Amino acid sequence: MYNTSIIRIRPLGFQWETSDPFLFCLHHLDDYPAGNAELGPAASLAGRNLGQDFTLKDGWRMYHGQKVPGFPAHPHRGFETVTVVLKGFVDHSDSHGAAGRYGNGDVQWMTAGSGLQHAEMFPLLKGEERNQLELYQIWINLPQSKKMADPYYTMLWNEEIPEVSVVDEEGRVTTVRLIAGALNGVVPPPPAPDSWAAGPGNEVAIWTINMEAGAKWALPPAVNPVNRTLYFNTGASLKVSGVEVQPYHAIELFPGQTTTIENGSAPAKLLMLQGRPIHEPVVQYGPFVMNTEQEIYQAFADFRETQFGGWPWHRTDPVHPPAKGRFATFAGGSSIEK
Questions:
Q1: CA angle 130, 135, 137 (to 5 degrees)
Q2: Nearest Cα to 22, choosing from 275, 309, 328, 329?
Q3: Where is the Pirin N-terminal domain positioned along the sequence (predicted)?
Q4: Which of 136, 282, 300, 336 has its CA 20 to 30 A from that of 19?
């Protein structure tokens, strides 16, 4: 223990360690080249382990993509994904026929529940300049009572996500975007209905925090016993309750008191994840997260039998037309154009 506010500080890798009710968080940061006619990189793919390209080469990765970077069709069961796109775009397609393109501040909240397949591709829409991509993908566990909920996804569009701006005594601003969890009386759009975040007493918060150089902010205490972690991924340095923290470190906090954050000499970006723990066994095998090994075996058996609804798309790595704007089409046929 460093002081009465901080439990521990730890360095971050590509996959960020999280605490119950979260499973983990991935931070994707890729500086892609200009796109080609197929919305992939207009650059040589030689020397890359295509299909498993997680090594940062020339500033970017293909991940599981062969032509377009991203994650072709793959199944999930038993948890949720929250995909927060700071820069760039994601093309979504799933086994229920839903689809979408979102990015530049948009958030997709998807409940895998009883099971579905989806693809998450990163279309390189700019053909004359570089395509920057930065996003967080956060996995949130589902309690046993909701593991087999109907699959569902919703969009939290950039324009609809509220912000709280706090100005300190020196006139420097801290801006908090509320993806989940209220702050200072400001309430974000509702999460997916079967989410652990849908229970107010669970006090789930997902906030992105931008601090001007030298800004100070007092993070208010939580009401209930929760796990609370700050992820400091961009900036020069921070002081958290007087303790200096370097970039790309996580700070686990005691939640029951105010925590003072003082930014250093450069603008800073942070992510905060908070929530009351579910306190249930977690058994994960690849894309499935259940409570017991037997439930994992059953998930594989169900997927082999049903393919979680099959795959209605003509390829496993679908991207939408280049001129298509931001949109969402849901199972059942309703759609939104932005």
A1: 150
A2: 275
A3: 53-140
A4: 300
Query: Token pair for residue 90?
Result: 């994601």
The bridge status of strand 99-103 relative to strand 89-94 is antiparallel
What is the chain's Cα-based Rg?
Answer: 20
Q: Is the pTM here over 0.70, yes or no?
A: yes
Q: Residue 207: pLDDT above 80?
A: yes
Q: Write out pLDDT tens, residues 271-328.
A: 999 999 999 999 999 999 999 999 999 999 999 999 999 999 999 999 999 999 999 9
